[in-house]
Design goal:
Elements lengths: L6 E4 L5 E2 L3 E3 L3 E5 L4 E8 L5 E8 L14 E4 L2 E4 L4 E8 L12 E11 L3 H6 L3 E4 L1 E10 L14 E13 L5 E8 L10 E3 L3 E11 L4 E7 L5 E7 L3
Parallel strand pairs: 2-11, 4-12
Antiparallel strand pairs: 1-11, 3-5, 5-9, 6-8, 6-10, 7-9, 10-12, 13-16, 14-15, 14-17, 17-18
Keywords: Chaperone, Periplasm, Signal
Main location: periplasm
Subcellular location: Periplasm
Length: about 240
């Protein structure tokens, strides 16, 4: 699959047309017992767009033709007409490539939006920029038998050390931490981070935290919503 990216730039002051395609989610979960999952794209623009869709293993700089994953995307390239939608099907294929089955695995779903050039606008305004925009979304493979995802945050542990908090994730699920708040509601994190299954991550926080302090962890569930979990820190 060839990597498509088009930037047509002619003369003087640019006018930008891009990023018309929206997707029905911020993350996509593929349960192992599902034959396939469907992703819906919608073109909110006034002209058709060409979308290229592929998965990568975490390196955004590797071109699609050099990537091999256990999934088939159909169609990998699609025209999405203005004010219309297009369904993309992702189906598991070679599961031998998935060697870890006791916790979730992560890929990244890429959607490259290449808007069409309006010929009438092109004739009127030679200083026009047509830019392809790529969006990346978390794509998580969830093996069977991992238990209840809704309980994952309850298994988190927080280790406090002055201006640092170590988050221990003993669950088999990826957990995206949006923020950690004090009892008074003060946010401690500068940015969100995703903690991998059965791993830990250290966060720098905006104020010193001590052992035994009550904190509220804000995280993202399967549907993109924010959930809050009360956790007492340990030393």
């Amino acid at each position: 699959m060839r990597f498509l990216i088009l930037i047509s730039c002619m003369l003087l002051t640019p006018r930008s047309y891009a990023d018309n395609i929206i997707v029905n989610g911020t993350r996509f979960i593929y349960p192992a017992n599902a034959p396939e999952i469907t992703i819906q794209m919608t073109n909110t623009g006034s002209a058709p767009s060409l979308a290229q869709i592929w998965l990568d293993e975490g390196d955004p700089d590797v071109p699609p033709e050099k990537i091999s994953t256990p999934f088939i995307i159909s169609p990998p390239i699609a025209r999405v007409d203005a004010k219309n939608g297009q369904s993309i099907r992702i189906k598991k294929q070679d599961l031998k490539k998935i060697t870890i089955n006791d916790k979730e695995s992560l890929w990244w779903l890429n959607i490259l939006d290449v808007p069409a050039i309006d010929k009438n606008e092109y004739k009127k305004d030679a200083g026009m920029l047509n830019m392809a925009i790529r969006s990346r979304f978390k794509f998580i493979w969830r093996p069977e038998g991992l238990g209840n995802r809704a309980d994952a945050e309850n298994k988190l542990e927080l280790l406090a050390s002055k201006n640092k908090i170590t988050v221990l994730n003993s669950s088999p699920f990826f957990i995206t931490i949006v923020d950690i708040k004090t009892a008074s509601g003060s946010g401690l994190l500068e940015e969100s981070e995703m903690v991998a299954p059965r791993s830990q991550m250290e966060f720098k926080v905006k104020e010193n935290i001590s052992h035994g302090q009550n904190l509220v962890v804000q995280s993202i569930n399967d549907y993109g919503g924010v959930v809050e979990t009360k956790i007492i820190t340990h030393g």
